[in-house]
Each structure stands twice: as C-alpha cells, then as structure tokens.
Amino acid sequence: MNEEKAIVEKRATAGAITELLGLNREEYVYRFVQDGRTITGISWVGAKALAEYFRITIVDADIKEVDDGFFGKAIAEWNERKAVGGAFQSKIMKLKNGTRVKDVKASVKALNKAQRNAILNLLPIPKYIIGNVGEKEKEEKAVEKEEIQTWEVQSESDTNTKYVVKKGTKGWECSCPSFQFRGGTCKHIESVKEKG
C-alpha cells in the first residue's frame, strides 16, 4: 500500500501536470475575458483527464435546484484523502451579444463544475502551471500552422463525449485519455485508419 502511495505521489508533480495539460490545451484549459481580464483555469475535460491519470474517483455527486439556478456538490477521493467541490450555475446565461437566455444545461454544468472542483482540490496545482500552459499556446500560435487532418470520433463509453483524432506531419494524435497517457496509438486512431 505504501509503495503504491509513493508512486502516485511521485506522479503528482508540477511537471507531470503541466505536461498532461499541455497535451491538449484547447480542451483541457479554458480561457475567457471578463471585465477586461483574462480568466484561465482547468476545464471539466482537463479535470477528468487528470482524474484518470492520477486515479482519482468521484465518490458522491449531487445537484440541488434553488430559485435562480442549480448548486452542485461532489466528493472526490485520491490516495486515501477526500475533497469536496461545489459550484453554482445560473438558470439564465448571458450570450456574447448581451442577450440573456435560459440555460437548459445549467444543472449538468453545475454538477460537472462541482466534480471538477473536487478533483482539483485534491491535486497540488499552483496557478503558474496554468500560466505556463497558456504561454506555450501563445508561442505555438505564433508559429505557422501545419496542414492537419482532423476527425471527430464518438466515445464508446460516454455518448456525450467526442474525441478529436488528428493527423499531421508529426504523426497521429487523439484527444482521448488513453492516447494522452500511453502515447503511440489508441482505438480511435485505429478506427479512423480502418475507415481510411
């Protein structure tokens, strides 16, 4: 048990987290401007990837409807420790053009954000890591983009999840956790190659 605990703790380094998040910045890190400030953080997809990599499990999750929105609460467990995550999501969302509309996915967003927060509360992720990932993205956008072919592939285990398979001059890539953690190939790349 102690040997496994030591292995898990060794994997939870700033370098490992930065590398994992950097594998698929567009999905793993969110970025938006609010009141002239750029807000950056780890997305739900990024948190799920970290949870799979570090073997974190959600042991409880629930949502409660309140007057103007939904409150989500989740408990995550890792390495014999537990953390709680909470999140509120309004029933009304504001679009970029300023229009306010009913958010039909508000309850799901509240639950996903709560799970994300519970996962992130268990991991030592200093804010500079998100900044480092953001800086790499800026550098790469400055470089001329290569010709890349992309395919969208449906997850077999989760109907709400789709993965992006890419083929470029550097080879094949997939946004699924299996490819990110093991590299080389995955069943999504193989399925695209078969359809060829």
List keywords for this structure.
196 residues; alpha+beta; 2 domains; three-stranded antiparallel β-sheet; globular
Chart the SSEs and their pairings:
Blueprint: H1 2-11, H2 14-22, H3 25-28, E1 29-34, E2 37-42, H4 44-54, E3 57-66, E4 69-78, E5 81-90, E6 92-94, E7 100-102, H5 106-122, H6 127-142, E8 149-154, E9 162-168, E10 171-174, H7 177-182, H8 187-195
Antiparallel strand pairs: 1-2, 3-4, 4-5, 6-7, 8-9, 9-10
Helix pairs in contact: 2-6, 4-5
Q: Could you give a short description of this structure?
A:
With 196 residues, this protein is α+β, with helices and mostly antiparallel strands. 42% of the residues lie in helices and 33% in strands.
Mean pLDDT: 78
Helix content: 40-55%
In what order do the strands lie side by side in the largest sheet?
3-4-5
- Head-to-tail CA distance between termini: 46 Å
How big is the Rg?
A: 18 Å
| Structural class based on helices, strands and sheet pairing | alpha+beta
Number of strands: 10
How many separate helices? Answer: 8
Question: Which consecutive residue ranges, at least 5 long each, have pLDDT under 50?
Answer: 139-145
**Total individual domains:** 2
Main sheet characteristics: 3 strands, antiparallel
* Order of H and E elements: HHHEEHEEEEEHHEEEHH
The shape, in one word, is globular
What percentage of amino acids are in beta strands?
Answer: 25-35%
Walk me through this protein's architecture.
This protein folds into two domains: 2-145; 146-196, no CATH class. It contains eight helices and ten strands. The chain has helices at residues 2-11, 14-22, 25-28, 44-54, 106-122, 127-142, 177-182, 187-195, and strands at residues 29-34, 37-42, 57-66, 69-78, 81-90, 92-94, 100-102, 149-154, 162-168, 171-174. The chain has a three-stranded antiparallel sheet. The chain has a three-stranded antiparallel sheet with strand order 8-9-10. Strands 1-2 form a two-stranded antiparallel sheet. Helix 2 runs parallel beside helix 6 and helix 4 (44-54) packs across helix 5. The longest helix has 17 residues, at 106-122. The relative contact order is 0.13. Residues 139-145 have low confidence and may be disordered.
